[in-house]
Amino acid sequence: MAVPKKKKSPSRRDMRRAHWKLEAPTLVECPHCHALIMPHRVCPECGYYKGVEVIKVEKE
């Protein structure tokens, strides 16, 4: 198994890990009910996708 000859400094280790951040999900407005939804998914509020009712959503 490969073993490093020299110890990596904490600075190098931390620079490597600098891109492990979490990103907030992208949200778009539903054109039918104007709720925030993830793109390319059926709206859980109204049940519409691309102007067509895909699922029936019961109103409370």
Automatic annotation (TrEMBL):
One of its GO terms (molecular function) is structural constituent of ribosome. One of its GO terms (biological process) is translation. The keyword Ribosomal protein applies. One of its GO terms (cellular component) is large ribosomal subunit. Transmembrane segments: none annotated. The keyword Ribonucleoprotein applies. Pfam families: Ribosomal_L32p (PF01783). InterPro entries: Ribosomal_bL32 (IPR002677), Ribosomal_bL32_bact (IPR044957), Ribosomal_zn-bd (IPR011332). Keywords: Ribonucleoprotein, Ribosomal protein. Belongs to the bacterial ribosomal protein bL32 family. PANTHER family: 50S RIBOSOMAL PROTEIN L32, LARGE RIBOSOMAL SUBUNIT PROTEIN BL32. HAMAP family: Ribosomal_bL32. This is Large ribosomal subunit protein bL32. It comes from Candidatus Fermentithermobacillus carboniphilus.
